[in-house]
Every structure is written in structure tokens, then in C-alpha cells.
Amino acid sequence: MGVSAVIVEDSRLARNELKELLKSHTEVEVLGEAENVDKGFDLIQNTQPDILFLDINMPEKDGFELLEMLDEVPITIFTTAFDEYAIKSFEYNALDYLLKPINQKRFDQALEKAKAKLEDKQESDAAKRLTSSSQIFIKDGEKCWLVRIGEISHFEIVGNYSRVFFADEKPMLYKSLNQIEEKLPEEYFFRANRQQIVNTNYISEVVPWFNGKLKLTMKNGDEVEVSRRQSYLFKDKMSF
């Protein structure tokens, strides 16, 4: 299986070290490297790599900020010299960490784990995306999540932020609902009203409401009122 990768790391020595570690993995093609977050963002947008090797502690912006900038996050392996970052727990779909200096055995383990995740993602895509396998990164306070789009039940506006509902979590994402809607797969997600977008796979009940509106009950018990205009569109979408 051919695998593409990019490296975002401020140290030239560390970038060279990663490329040296990759020499025994001829199936991995390094599409490019960047020494800071802004250049890394442009590189990722232009190349769409399968795997991202990402330093956390970089000048001006850190690795977490880069992931927040991306609409879809590649499978990511963090590289860091600081233990404090290694113990920062991801609440959901944990990513892998490599502590510098990186030894070949530990690197190989992390890469095999990433390739296994990539195979799962490709199989999901090949199955006509029955569940959306794209991932987004969310950082709310000290907590971080890497969430598959298909595992999100709904979004709602909270000021300049959007609240994201998945599992038992509801962190805030610093993106507008309109920005989010543009990127969501239409086959799963529906704009119920100005404030909320729902994943139709997570609707447990639909009932008629006032003035031609509909009320949706989500699987987590939350209720969402569909505007009158959107109710007509929802009925058409769901073939009611």
C-alpha cells in the first residue's frame, strides 16, 4: 500500500531524523516538509497527505493550532521533546506520540499503527461511506478530541463558536455553523434551522410540531425544532 506523508517540524535536524527513520519504509512517500504552522497548513492543503508527522512545540503557533486550522485532519503522529505533551490525554480517538530522541523500533510501531488506521479509513470510504470517516480536531480548554464526522450527532451555534455533540461530549469548536456546513457530507447532515445541524443517522424520533414544523429527538435525548421551510425540505430528503 502506497502511503503519502508530510513533516511539519521547526528543527531541520529533527526533520532529517524523521526522513532517516522513514528510509526503511519504502512504501511511504514524503510529499514535503515545513518548518512552521502556516507553511505546514499550505503544504497539507495542497498535498492532502495520508499521514502527518507533527511537532507540537513550535514558535508562534503550536501543532495543536495547526490541527484546529484544518477542515479534515490526516492521521497524525506527534513528535515532541516534552513529556508534558505526551501525557496530555486525548479524550477521543487518541493520537500517537513519539518522544525525542526517537528510536527506530518505537517509530516503526507508530507508523504501523497509523497505516492500520489508514486501511480502516480506506475500507470505510470504499464502502460508499456508510459512515463518514473524515476526522476533525477539537481543542476545548485542556481537552482534545479527534472525531470522525460520522460520529457527530449534531452541531449548534453558541455565539462565535459551534458546539459539537458526540458520545457524551459537547465541546466548543471555533468555527461558524456556516463554515462547518460547507464541509459536511450532505448525505448525512441536514440544516434543521439557523442554529442547528443534525446528523440524520442520530435521529431517534420525528414528530409533527406547530405551524407545519417538525420536532426531532436525537439519540442522546436532545430535541431539535426544524423550521417550517426546512421541514418541507427534510420531508423530501427523508422521503416522508
Automatic annotation (TrEMBL):
Domain HTH LytTR-type: from-to ranges: 136-240
SUPFAM superfamilies, alphabetized: CheY-like (SSF52172)
Domain Response regulatory: 4-115
Modification sites for 4-aspartylphosphate: 55
Keyword Phosphoprotein: yes
Alphabetical list of PROSITE patterns matching this protein: HTH_LYTTR, RESPONSE_REGULATORY
Keywords, comma-separated and alphabetical: Phosphoprotein
Keyword Phosphoprotein: yes
Protein name stated in the entry: Response regulator transcription factor
Lineage of producing organism: Bacteria, Pseudomonadati, Bacteroidota, Flavobacteriia, Flavobacteriales
